[in-house]
Hints:
The protein is an alpha/beta fold. It has helices at residues 43-54, 56-61, 74-84, 97-101, 147-157, and strands spanning 13-16, 21-23, 31-36, 64-70, 89-92, 122-126, 132-137. The protein has a single domain (13-157), classed as 3-Layer(aba) Sandwich (Glutaredoxin). It has a seven-stranded mixed beta sheet. The radius of gyration is 14 Å and the shape is globular.
Amino acid sequence: MSVNIGDSAPEFSLYSDEKEAWTLSEQRGKNVVLLFFPAAFSGTCTTELNTINNDLARFNDANAVVVGISTDTPFAQAEFKAKNMLNYSLLSDHNAEVAVMYGVKFGSNFANMGYDRIAKRSVFVIDQEGKVIHREVLDNPGNEPDYEAITGALESIA
């Protein structure tokens, strides 16, 4: 399964770094930026999430809720969030079920290292009605997303 621009964003509920349920449909009326990332404490993920955090005012101005999603536990994410002083929630997709729903789970190419359940670095921007207006899925976990395209998508609906 793959989620594309124009699709309704698949509904999900995950636990946050604060061990509270976070549900996509409860965000209706706001734009949502889903940042799927492979692993807390890895180099490119740290850079990506800090880059977004440093520009968070721009997302807030666009009435956007930003959340990071990885298969790390809520406990690991809480530590990662605290260490990096991130000002948005990190959600635990521990069994990669949401990554599968969005079509961004890495395949078996990482299975021999025990990482066959991680998400590809991906960004989905969802408008206030729940439609996907931006999608970027990166096959190389060492690459960062196109930050200008993310904010451009938000500006296009502001």
